[in-house]
Amino acid sequence: MNNLIRLVGRRLVALPIMVLGVTLLVFFLMSFSKIDPAYSALGEGASEKALEDYREAHGLNLPWPVQYVNFLIGFLKGDLGTYGASQTSVAERVSHAFPITIQLTFLGLIIAVIFSVLFGVLAALYRDTWVDQVIRIISIACIATPSFWLAVLLIQAFTVNTFIFPAAGALPAFSDDPYGYTMRMAMPAFALAVPVAGSLTRVIRTAMVEELDKDYVRTAIGAGIPKAVVVSRNVLRNALITPVTVLGLRIGYLMGGAVIIEVIFTLPGMGMAILDGVQQNHPTLVQGVTLVVALAFIVINIVVDMLYVLINPRIRTV
Question: What pTM did the predictor assign?
Answer without folding.
Answer: 0.81
